[in-house]
Amino acid sequence: MRYSTLFLFTALAGEYRVRLRASTMGGMQLYSVIVTRDAEMKEKLSPAHFNQPMVKGAPVVLTFCADFRRFSKWCEQRNAVPGYDNLMSFMNASMDTLLVAQTFCTLAEEAGLGICYLGTTTYNPQMIIDTLQLPKLVFPITTITVGYPDGTPAQVDRLPLEAAVHQEVYHDYTPEDIDRLYEYKESLPENKQFIEENKKETLAQVFTDVRYTKKDNELMSENLLKVLRQQGF
User: What phi, psi does 80 have (nearest 5°)?
Assistant: First the structure.
């Protein structure tokens, strides 16, 4: 049975499942999801994501937001004083948001849909906040484009399980461990091509010098903190 994107999201959101079942901090459900299908709205969102083609090309764009506004309003209307304008509250809401986002992605892929996480959401949060009219205590965390894929692309490489799983305590990586764990990634033709195209010596240099530089990360960190304060966290 083929599900429409709207049906799938509605099922996740509760019409067919009664409640959102993703794990959540203290049962507070500190997230909201903005569903964008309108072409004009996708056009407005596109610059915030560096005009990546999937934003305008996908039938549905979902912006998952950390949301302490709804819970705070409930507190105020029930004679309780909310105190969630702080970093810890933002962290809790962010974790809630990513949990529900990944739960949605799992359901979407099980239903035959294709998804794409956009890591650009927190690069230009103010643009997204303005476009989606997000009020105080609501902050965009991740964006997922959804639609039926034209084909089945090869899966992107991942490190082996032993790279990320530690038994009992954290075991730091020896130089030999690093060589072994990254050997396959570094051997892939597409990654060797990245090195050549960017005129670098190693794949690691492509990340540090081109894709995710210290300068860019510091600039975006500064902007992220500024916008967080503006949104009341």
Answer: -120, 150
CA dist., res. 26 & res. 45, Å (int): 32
Torsion of CA 61, 135, 30, 232, to 10 degrees: 130
pTM of the entire predicted model = 0.89
Q: 3-state DSSP helix/strand/coil percent for the chain, to nearest 5?
A: 50, 10, 35
Helix (H, G, I), strand (E, B) or coil at 138: strand
**Coil, helix or strand for 223?**
helix
Tell me the per-residue pLDDT of 66-116, one tens digit each, with 9 for 90 and over.
Answer: 999 999 999 999 999 999 999 999 999 999 999 999 999 998 888 888 999
**Pairing state of beta strands 114-118 and 138-147?**
antiparallel
Order of strands across the sheet with 31-36? 31-36, 60-67, 138-147, 114-118
Burial of 7 (C-beta count, 10 Å sphere; 0-12/13-18/19+): middle
Reported as a single tens digit per residue, the pLDDT across 157-207 is 999 999 999 999 999 999 999 999 999 999 999 999 999 999 999 999 999
125 neighbors 140 (Cβ within 8 angstroms): yes
Look at residues 15, 203, 196, 21 and name the one whose alpha carbon lies nearest to residue 106. Answer: 21
**C-alpha neighbours within 13 Å on the C-beta side of residue 34:** 24
Question: Cα Rg for the chain, rounded, in angstroms?
Answer: 20
Separation between Cα atoms, residue 162 and residue 140, nearest integer Å: 32
Do the beta carbons of residue 37 and residue 60 sit within 8 Å?
yes
